[in-house]
Design a protein that fits this description.
By secondary structure, the chain is an all-alpha fold. 75% of the residues lie in helices and 0% in strands. The longest helix has 31 residues. The radius of gyration is 19 Å and the shape is elongated. Its main location: membrane.
């Protein structure tokens, strides 16, 4: 179902103005995570496509596309078997792409633990290009928001939440969300404020950060930033 980010922000802000704060995170938290994950996936997809385009091989490419089609049809076990074969026998960029896609299929199957482990393994593999390693770490970090602790998310992605890193906006948002989920409003405020203060933050990410800062202020559990 299509999701309009601006209308979502307006709806939550209406909740804020009407002082109906108690159920806001329960109503909207999952949607916030889903929208942000789509952005992470899009960024990672762009990185992976560039890597694929620079290293394409006709035969392996056909196999990869066939495996993706199986995954899109929810034939997950068949897709995983095809991707495993491509990882072992493929050429150029395809073994790495197969590993990334296989981890995504594991998440699609509902096996978050297996997906997180697979993404973490890719993220630590020095034989994989740095951009792809970072994309894998981000995927693990976002999956850990609902399946792990703040410490686990931090270990996976905090190193990317620094100026100049291409994934810093997504990393900061993930860290802010998992801190909020854990009830650490002071830490959450710091991460969301870092998004707002970064003039290069994408508009939709900055909008969500403003919304989360409003929620934190309304909760009364963390002091407002002094301007």
């Amino acid at each position: 179902m299509a999701f309009n980010d601006d209308s979502f922000i307006r709806e939550v802000n209406e909740e804020l103005r009407s002082d109906q704060m108690k159920g806001v995170w329960r109503r909207f938290g999952r949607y916030i995570i889903v929208v942000a994950i789509l952005i992470v996936v899009g960024t990672a997809g762009k990185v992976l496509y560039q890597y694929w385009d620079d290293n394409r091989s006709s035969s392996a490419g056909d196999q990869f596309l066939a495996a993706m089609k199986l995954a899109d049809e929810n034939k997950n076990d068949e897709a995983l078997a095809a991707l495993d074969k491509l990882e072992k026998e493929g050429h150029g960029a395809y073994p790495v792409l197969a590993r990334m896609r296989a981890a995504t299929v594991q998440a699609q199957k509902g096996d978050a633990a297996a997906a997180i482990a697979a993404f973490n393994e890719i993220g630590k593999d020095n034989g994989v290009p740095a951009a792809v390693r970072d994309a894998a770490k981000m995927r693990a970090g976002w999956l850990l928001i609902e399946n792990g602790s703040y410490e686990q998310v931090s270990a996976a992605i905090e190193e990317m939440a620094v100026p100049g890193n291409a994934f810093r906006h997504s990393a900061r948002e993930a860290l802010g969300l998992v801190a909020y989920k854990a009830g650490n409003m002071t830490q959450a405020r710091q991460w969301f404020q870092s998004i707002v203060d970064d003039t290069d933050s994408p508009r939709n990410v900055a909008n969500r950060a403003h919304m989360m800062l409003d929620l934190i202020t309304a909760s009364g559990k963390a002091p407002a930033a002094q301007g």
